[in-house]
Specification:
Oligomer: single chain
CATH topology: Rossmann fold
Number of helices: 5
Strand content: 15-25%
CATH architecture: 3-Layer(aba) Sandwich
Number of strands: 11
Mean pLDDT: 91
Helix content: 25-40%
Strand order of the largest sheet: 3-2-1-6-9-10-11
Structural class: alpha/beta
CATH class: Alpha Beta
Shape: globular
Distance between the termini: 31 Å
Number of domains: 1
Length: 192
């Protein structure tokens, strides 16, 4: 393991603890505030297609966010991991059609792969910076998906306790346009 990988592993351990320290009630209230901030974004309000991760465990709860976005008539896409390198954006088939997939993440068993483009992508992460850098679980699925697909606005969502001053960054890490927490929206100024 190189020094960047070691630093990222250290950050992952710290940020997992910070997220786990929130009570169920704190997570629910913070998730609701994050949802309202995301839904208020002009690009989200205008969007026709949204690719959003399906939360699990103590992540920001995206289930009500997905329901709200779908309720407004948008096409919702959710991730399906296809192997050690691949992730697809699949049309959301509804909650009953999701089953635990790779890494235990709820995913469609089958469904239509979205050909693109995607208006908005909402990503998970363990940690985020004001510059739009995000630290995920270390598999690189979202960075590879970003590099290979046409999309509009990218948004990372997380609790305020997941926001840090700096993170180790690799050449393959792709920053997001917005970081939305329960306390604020950070616009990174990233130009593509």
């Amino acid at each position: 393991m190189n020094s960047d990988q070691v630093a990222k592993q250290d950050w992952r351990a710290r940020l997992k603890q910070a997220r786990a320290a929130l009570s169920v009630a704190e997570r629910a209230a913070a998730s609701a505030r994050i949802r309202e901030r995301v839904l208020a974004e002009e690009a989200v309000r205008r969007s026709r297609t949204v690719f959003c991760f399906v939360s699990q465990g103590n992540e920001v709860d995206t289930h009500p966010l997905i329901d709200a976005l779908a309720g407004d008539g948008r096409t919702i896409l959710v991730p399906k991991i296809t192997g050690p390198e691949g992730m697809l954006a699949i049309e959301f088939p509804g909650w009953p059609a999701l089953q635990p997939g790779t890494l235990g993440i709820p995913a469609p068993v089958s469904g239509r792969v979205w050909p693109g483009p995607v208006d908005v992508v909402i990503t998970p992460g363990l940690g985020f910076t004001a510059e739009g850098h995000r630290l995920g679980m270390g598999k690189g699925y979202y960075d590879r998906w970003f590099a290979a697909h046409d999309y509009g606005l990218s948004i990372a969502i997380g609790f305020e306790s997941q926001l840090v001053a700096g993170l180790p960054v690799s050449a393959t890490d792709i920053p997001v346009d917005l970081v939305v927490t329960d306390r604020r929206v950070l616009r990174t100024g990233r130009a593509r």
